[in-house]
């Protein structure tokens, strides 16, 4: 039976310092890159959530050993051609879209076939965006409706490609770069700007990548094949996980929070820029560069005069995982907030645009939604005093955690189902809330 949480009162004001777990995007990328290195790689503060553990299980199935404890994770890589596995080996990506899409790239030259599976939620998602470029490399892919389960077999002679990525998908871009590592010649990607952790990791490892900007697109060139040595990495805190506490603080009177050592890569901080436009009190402190990634402490104070926003289109890709929280803030802001070209939200763990619309209406907020846009008519005096039963998340961890923040910030009595989904990205989320004074049973 799925676990249930009960919240019957708002959180009281707080003034705290917290640390959030390691960045999920970086944790998974580190695991996959370490599996391709020659020798031992060590990560500190790696996220130990279901998604990251799925990535570790995947490389184990491919013949790469690892050791993990509370302090670090060690991966014993065997180089670009180090995978060893039996034909029709099954890899279960669980709920991780990042793992499921990126692993195509690592299998570009595999001699044996992999059967890639996922949980019920991931199996509903479209994989055409990676299938197309991987077939251009020469990968043999068998799928029904371009959804999981998918059979993947590499090619003996991967061909470099020239590909234009139009959706602003970091997963597609990263998948191509991982394949390019094992491909003789130069692969070129023209991409709508999106999170750039993979490119920064390549640069840190001194791999032959070139990145420039041309006609508002990222132009990325990579020349394979070059082995690299094992490497150590300290993974900073996750901005997506931090965002739940940023929004809780903004919406809780007389509260302050300092979130330490968070990854504030510009491609990921759209939520901070959007909330600042809405007059939120957020400051980055002690900002520093760590191997190409920027890390800072995020200081937040409660804000009681938030205003609506007509969200700039350039913010969309930089905020894609945080829009549910942004929508909640807009529900409490003065005026009508408008979002356009956000149809990509329909392709997440669940249809997040559909979920947000139903969720805000349940709170008494007027909305207008189309296939690709959203309007929210904010209510600065929003106070909740009913019973709210939130049951269906389709394993969407962010939708589940959103319900906790709404309950603690706005009041009412809440019954929240499917809280096991939180383990996908943020296993200690509830314990951190309780440390701030939240009463959750």
Low-confidence spans: none
Please report the total strand number as a whole number: 22
Major β-sheet profile = 4 strands, mixed
Percent of sequence in beta strands:
25-35%
* Termini Cα gap: 16 Å
Tell me, briefly, the overall form.
globular
Structure description:
The protein has 441 residues and is α+β, with helices and mostly antiparallel strands. It folds into two domains: 5-22 and 236-435, Alpha-beta prism (UDP-n-acetylglucosamine1-carboxyvinyl-transferase, Chain); 24-223, Enolpyruvate transferase domain (UDP-n-acetylglucosamine1-carboxyvinyl-transferase, Chain, Alpha-beta prism). The protein is 28% helix and 29% strand. The strands form six sheets. Strands 2-15-17-16 form a four-stranded mixed sheet. Strands 4-5-3-14 form a four-stranded mixed sheet, with helices on one face. A four-stranded mixed sheet has the order 6-7-9-8. The protein is globular and about 65 Å long.
Topology:
Blueprint: E1 5-7, E2 15-19, H1 24-34, E3 38-44, H2 50-61, E4 65-68, E5 72-78, E6 89-92, H3 97-106, E7 114-117, H4 128-137, E8 140-144, E9 147-153, E10 162-165, H5 170-181, E11 185-191, H6 197-204, E12 209-214, E13 217-224, E14 232-234, H7 239-250, E15 256-263, H8 270-277, E16 281-290, E17 293-301, H9 323-331, E18 336-340, H10 352-362, E19 366-369, E20 373-377, E21 384-390, H11 397-410, E22 411-416, H12 429-435
Parallel strand pairs: 2-15, 3-14, 6-7, 10-11, 21-22
Antiparallel strand pairs: 1-22, 3-5, 4-5, 7-9, 8-9, 11-13, 12-13, 15-17, 16-17, 18-20, 19-20
Helix pairs in contact: 1-2, 1-3, 3-5, 4-5, 7-9, 7-11, 9-10
